[in-house]
Amino acid sequence: MTAITPKIENSWKEILKDEFESEYFKKIKQFLVDEKKQYSIFPKGNEIFSAFDLTPFYSVRVVIIGQDPYHGINQAHGLCFSVLDGVEHPPSLKNIFKEIQNDLGGEYPKSGNLSSWAEQGVLLLNATLTVRENQANSHQYIGWQLFTDAVIQKLSTERSGIVFLLWGGFAQKKGCKIDTSKHYVLKSGHPSPLSANKGHWFGNKHFSKTNEILLQMKTAPINWKIS
Questions:
Q1: Which of 34, 68, 103, 149 is catalytic?
Q2: From CA 53, how far away is CA 201, in angstroms rounded?
Q3: What are the tens digits of pLDDT across the range 181-218?
Q4: Looking at CB atoms within 10 Å, which of 5, 25, 96, 189 has the fewest?
Q5: What are residue 66's DSSP bridge partners?
Q6: 2-28 pLDDT per residue, tens
Q7: Cα 15 to Cα 111: distance, rounded to the nearest angstrom
């Protein structure tokens, strides 16, 4: 197979050049080509790398690691936990917004679109970047995990002072090799109702804690409030 040159923001294209030239990435590409002949795939092709396009490599200040894109129609658009304007908020996103209310005050937002976070330097990274319609984790083993492991490793190795928010056991395992001598890692339960209702999510204050860290580094805090 020939080398792949995906449409992705230029700094990431350069940083991840070896991944895009790898055999496993070529297999991901071919899998998706074949998959689209039979199934609907989310997010849309031009949104698969939205997290990277909105948050260039050298602009990343915070990383939130999700697991799998939403698999319902019109939900996923390339940012973990985020949905487009006008789409009903999934349960995990509702709990994220409730914790922001508890932590920082303010009103519960109408929009579930987290693009404004991404534009401020929050990389909203799903471990798997695509999914088959109505089939959660259906693309978990096609190679995306290798790709996103490489993303996290590049950030850990080549950057410093990033705040990693690891919500739930999956994200914590995914981020286990982050260099904590160079970066900040905050851990809590997952915002899904299964975890949150057992007391593992609410009260973590990750949003105010992240801003305290950023201010200590003399950089602007994140405006977590969505309108």
A1: 68
A2: 29
A3: 999 999 999 999 989 888 899 999 999 999 999 999 99
A4: 5
A5: 126
A6: 456 789 999 999 999 999 999 999 999
A7: 32
